[in-house]
Design goal:
Helices cover 45% and strands 19% of the residues. Helix 3 crosses helix 4. The radius of gyration is 20 Å and the shape is globular. It starts with a helix and ends with a helix. Bound molecules: (2E)-N-benzyl-2-cyano-3-(pyridin-4-yl)prop-2-enamide.
C-alpha cells in the first residue's frame, strides 16, 4: 500500500515537472528580447498594469491575460520564430491591403498583427461582437479580455447548448457572418467552434482570431467563406440544424 502511494506521488511529481517545463518552453520562445522590450514600454506607458498567465497557445501565437488601467486585457503575441509563417504568406501576400510588404519573416508577422487589429476594428464597426481592439505594436496585439476575473469565456466547442439556445446562437453566428461580408467586406477564413467564444451571461457568440480574415478582393475569399459555412453547418448538425450550404451562402451574401 505504502509502496503504491510512493509510486503514485512520484508519478504526479514527474507529471507536474513535465507540465511546468512545457509551460516554460511555450512562454520561453514567445518572449524574445524585442517582445519583452515592447511589453516593458507598454507597461511604462500605463497601457499594461500587470501581465497574467497564458490563456491559450497556438503554433503561431500565445494569448496572455493582462490587467489594464481600466479593463482586463488579452495580449496576443505572435511568435517571431513561428514556423507557420509560410501559411501566413498565402493569406497576406494576395491581400490588396498588404501587397507592398517585404517578404521577410518579421515584416510578415508585424503586418499580420496589424491586419488582425484592422480586421477586429472593421468587424466591430460592422456590428459583429468581437474583443474590443486596443492596439498593435510589432508582433503584439492588445484587445479587450472576453471573460471575467482572469477566466476567459468558454469556446463554443466546450459549451453544451440547451435546446432553446441552439437557434439563437446559430442565427446570431449567421447574422455576424452576413454583417462581416456585407458591412465589413470581410470573410473570417478560420471560423469554427474553436474561434467562437460564448458569453455565459447571455449565451451570445463572440468571434475571435481574425488575423487570417481577408477582404472580398482576395482571390480565395469565396473559397474561405465556403469553408467557414461548412464548419458552422458541420458543428450545428449535431443539434439537428439542417440548413443547406448553398442556402447559407446565399443568406450571408444577400443584400
Ligand atoms: N484571440 C484570442 C483568443 C482568446 C481570447 C480570450 C479572451 N479574450 C480575448 C481573446 C484565443 O484563444 N485565440 C486562439 C489562439 C489562436 C492562435 C494562437 C493562440 C491562441
Amino acid at each position: 500500500e505504502k509502496k503504491i502511494r510512493r509510486i503514485d506521488s512520484a508519478k504526479d511529481k514527474s507529471r507536474a515537472r513535465e507540465k511546468d517545463s512545457e509551460r516554460l518552453k511555450v512562454e520561453e520562445n514567445v518572449f524574445d528580447v524585442s517582445t519583452l522590450k515592447i511589453l516593458y514600454t507598454l507597461s511604462n506607458k500605463g497601457i499594461i498594469k500587470a501581465m497574467g498567465g497564458s490563456i491559450s497557445t497556438g503554433k503561431e501565437a500565445n494569448v496572455f491575460y493582462a490587467e489594464g488601467p481600466e479593463k482586463e486585457l488579452a495580449i496576443k503575441i505572435y511568435r517571431i520564430s513561428s514556423s507557420t509563417f509560410k501559411a501566413m504568406d498565402t493569406y497576406i501576400m494576395k491581400d490588396p491591403r498588404f501587397t507592398n510588404i517585404r517578404n521577410n519573416k518579421r515584416d510578415i508577422i508585424f503586418a499580420w498583427t496589424r491586419k488582425e487589429l484592422q480586421n477586429l476594428k472593421r468587424a466591430k464597426s460592422a456590428g459583429v461582437r468581437v474583443p474590443e481592439p486596443v492596439l498593435a505594436e510589432k508582433n503584439i496585439l492588445i484587445m479587450e479580455f472576453m471573460g471575467e476575473k482572469e477566466v476567459p469565456y468558454p469556446l463554443l466547442k466546450n459549451t453544451p447548448l440547451e435546446n432553446d439556445e441552439v437557434k439563437l446562437v446559430y442565427d446570431t453566428i449567421v447574422e455576424y457572418m452576413h454583417l462581416l461580408y456585407k458591412e465589413a467586406n470581410l470573410v473570417h477564413a478560420d471560423l469554427s467552434e474553436y474561434n467562437i467564444l460564448i458569453d455565459p451571461n447571455n449565451i451570445t457568440p463572440i468571434f475571435i482570431d481574425m488575423g487570417q480574415s481577408v477582404t472580398l478582393e482576395h482571390p480565395n475569399a469565396r473559397e474561405f467563406l465556403y469553408r467557414d459555412v461548412k464548419n458552422i453547418l458541420r458543428f450545428f448538425s449535431r443539434y439537428g440544424i439542417k440548413d443547406k450550404t448553398e442556402e447559407l451562402l446565399k443568406k450571408i451574401q444577400a443584400e
